[in-house]
Design a protein that fits this description.
This protein is α+β, with helices and mostly antiparallel strands. The chain is built from 22 helices and 30 strands. It folds into five domains: about 60 residues, no CATH class; about 210 residues, Deoxyribonuclease I, Chain A, CATH 3.60.10.10; about 200 residues, no CATH class; about 150 residues, 2-Layer Sandwich (Alpha-Beta Plaits), CATH 3.30.70; about 40 residues, no CATH class. The protein is globular and about 105 Å long. This is Reverse transcriptase domain-containing protein.
Length: about 850
Amino acid sequence: MSEWLSGNTINGILSLWETPTNHSKCQQNPLSILNYNVQGWGTRALEAVELIFNSDSSIGIFTEVGELWKDFTIPHFKSFYQKGTNSKGGVVVAVGKHLKATRIDTNIENTVIVDVEGLTEQIRIIGIYWPQCQPRNLEDLTSYISEKTILTGDFNASAQEWQSPMTDARGNQLKKWIEKNNLLFIPGTKNSSKRSDRHIDLIFTNIEDAEAETLNTGTSDHWPIVMKSDRIGFQTDGNFPVVNWTVFQIVLALLQDFWTKESEIQDAENWYLNYTRFLSALKNRVTKWSNRNRYRPSLPPYIVGMLKQVRRVRNKYYRERKTNFGVEVERTRLLLRTLTKQVKNEVYNYKSERWNAFLSTIQESHDRNGKHFWSHLSKIYKPKTLPISKLKAGSITIAHQQEITNMLYSYYKEQANSPTIDESEKHDQKIVRDYNKIMNTLSQPLDIKVEKVTSSEVTKIIKKLKNKKSSGYDQISNYIIKLLPPAYIDCLVKCFNVWLSEGRYPDFWKLAKIITLNKLNAGVPRPDQTRPISLLATHSKLFEKVLLERVSNWAEGAQLVPIEQSGFRQGGLIATRVLSIYQEIQNNLAANMPTLALYVDYRKAYDMVWHAGLLVKLHDLGMPIALLKMTASWLGNRQAYIAFGDKVSEKYKIDIGLPQGSSLSPFLFIVYHCDLIQCLGAHSGHMFADDLSVLITAPITKSLATIISYLEEEGTEVCKKIAAYAKKWKQPINVQKTVAQIFYKQIKRPEIKIHMEGHQLEIVNTFKYLGFTWTSKMSLKPTIDLCLEKKGIQNAERVTEEDKAHNYEAAIKNYMAAAECLLHAVKRN
């Protein structure tokens, strides 16, 4: 407060508070990678655990692991397994949980490919086991070689250049492929085979300044090798922000009178911009950066001691076995077996204790709805998208950040152009004429205004916001807004009412920051294989919810939203739509009548909405002129720019589509296509937002051939009408992804052909729609199996009774109660 009262200007104070805090330097460790042929994970799992911790390795590649790798996993590591061509083969790549690992899906046996982040540079690990006398096509791996790749494993290949006395045929084959892909061999300190002078456990990489050391330990026939790179490492500790929210709230409360007075002398735009800048700067001012250990936790000392004891007994056993086979050897073998079992049990108990401690914390919080439990699991099991490090442009691959940014900018700028108007099409001409008339009317002063908003209405909206601390485009989070004292909300209401009375959506809310995600699970994506994510100002979402309330009141009052639509409306639930579809199909099957289902897929539904068509249709549907002006202002003059890494593109104009992430967009999409249901005639339509399903049932007749013929004709006719509607309102359909399904009771699936725009639709046996797996025989097994898989019940035999009790009390009990309510609802229906 002394800084605020120093007599400096508002701009001077906020500039001071916005100054970034100096972060302390973080300690960095070089990356170490262990490569070891264990010759059976079941017998050498503990040895592998001790090796990876003693060598301080963050990544382990274990070959010839066999099929027992699941019996024991490395604590604090995430393991990826690929089976081999026989029971003794297989590869495991283990990555420390202090790093982010994403598996690249392949169908190549004895091969695991993992992308690793959290290092100074992202790397790709390719773990290989190549058994003797088995062929391998190395070209299968060529497309997976990226800029920072480490290829390692047991190749069973010899070359004089690779520390072996001679070069064999496999060595020649591998050497040519390595040279072709510009990979370098990293030599160890000695050969890796104990039985010969050959060096067959090899490491290749295109990373500079890498070196390897062969360890003189281990009981398999291969010496373990550790590769290190000083160029690539990870932070053992990191800085993270700690915001003093108590001080933040106190300062807000002390300065609310100041901002109230400012709202009386400044116009809405200037007050709002200064106010949002103040919130962001204040948060920065009360933020301190603390150090946190980011490195993986080590094993407890007592387990480390037990591992050393097992190693001593194991070495003693292997020494005695070579010299004699008497009672002493058998006694040592039994001791080794007993100690190994004890250590495995201790490691398992250690992992169970950590899990039980977490569940106890959940229970002590008395969280009845299981929010903390599922929030924790969602962070662990949430789907991961591969980062974008390269883009494909035809046959060319680009990797420079600025080039990728420019390519994404060109692609999305072209996508943002308004749809092409067909001058020969009467409907297009009418829409253009009507749109120009409407925009001319809206440009004139209006006597009617949009209904004003009140402080209580905005307060209710704020209370319903999710309590997220992630910031929006304006560096302000939902959490900050929920901390606002009433005086700030009153000032916001005053700004909102100014913009509502003017029928104007502020221009500073119309700029979106676009970041892109990768749609692919493997390989280099093209620009059309990326998913754009728009970051908007958090306060704009409050104003959009105010608009949504007025638009929905008008639409619902005019009964514009069809009863077949369940999405984004009050009382509309996925469960309602699923039960409706399920009941209809079951009724038909009870009468032995097949049912045809069409699943229509729109291409980028919200992103392809025609602005002129939307405004004309809203006008024709009777939207109040003041609300229409507000909607037109909300749609018009929008801009965006691409942010990739530390590069940003130029701004480009958006002339098509509804703003992504807006609460108003889904409802306007529903109203825009409220007449789509009329294309279906007497057939049953089911809609949830942009998901459309059509059920077609034939009249009751004895002849199956007559029924199928009717379904084919009606199905194709409905597709024709839906396609004509989509063309008329420029809402393109992805015909290749639109499919059909026939539900039947007969032994053999009836043959049926449905066409849309000259394309024959694929007839599927199963289809996932609205989160439910629909099978042609209406079996519930796939959906139930999916639910069981998500909950991990199939692994319950490895969970102790105490763990099960904790799990039940912490989470499952609540969901069983909810399921019981749903069961009663189904019975009533």
